[in-house]
Fold this protein.
Amino acid sequence: MKFRCERDLLVDALATAGRAVANRGSALPVLSGLRFVLEGDELTLTGSDLELTISVRVSVSGSVDGEAVVPSRLAADVVRALDAGAVEFVLHDDQVDITSGRSDFSLRTLPADEFPRLADPDGDEVRLDAKAIAAALRQVVPAASADDHRPILTGVLLAAEGSGLRLVATDSYRLAVRDLPGTSVLSEGKSVLVPSRALAELARVLEHDESVTVRFGERDAAFRSGSVELTTRLIEGEFPNYQGLIPSHQPNRLTVGRDVLLDAVRRVKLLARESTTPVRLQMSTEGLELVAVTQDVGEAHEQLDAKYEGTELTVAFNPDFLLQGIEVAGGDEVTLETVDSLKPAVLRGLDADEFLYLLMPVRVQ
């Protein structure tokens, strides 16, 4: 294998494929590497931890076709450290030489025949609008759990809903639901549970593309956009009945400017020093007051102009969860609908019915 490539192109490709590389605790040492496959002037880099696989195609100046598995982190660090310009890779037996200008590195390779070959999902391909999917993922994925002991909650439910697609995620403390009307990728009544980690990586990939091709198999899903293909195993199991969590009637409604609320929560949060310290929202017809109190540290108060309809109420939330909901709600104004200080509250962008963020209050004295 021998090729030349511009450093910056290679840095980006190594970083993208490297995000799927297994950590050091993997039972297969070869998964700590990236597989390089050169065919003509096309180089394909693949990283995998068996659950998530990311492949990136790069245009290079190829001389000798071949295949090698190179330590991912070390290769990325070496190429990133080189001066801008052309970088040459040459494979010699069990090592690869990386040269640029006066810099010359030799890295030992990993056994290429031990790198797993994963079959592609066999479902039909569907082409979707990349910007719409990326926007929906940014709203929903953060609400998924990061606790691997509850694998069902680490996934995002994709379900056929009406004439469109619904995305749902929850970590049991908050719930995010986003509808994409007119987006059809699953047959009626069907749903899949996709790991949130894979969808977070997909959202990165889609930032600069116009379309994405989606394919769902029996146990796997594949997404292809531009020069990147991402394959992930689906999560097996039944997603919680989230619809029963959404209150059917909420008599109290707060309407406030999104950016104003976002900035105020960030300021007041400075005094919510402990992870268990909530931010309190004191809502009345006079407006909204945010309060955070940490014993032996101090307290913060900030008053905001807001429209409030309902019974005077104080409700407290985890400030990080509240911030994440406000950030992704969209629009110039947001609404917060509540029943009382203990039942779930619903946050939305004003007149934006496609997205719902449900948040459990924190009990305070």
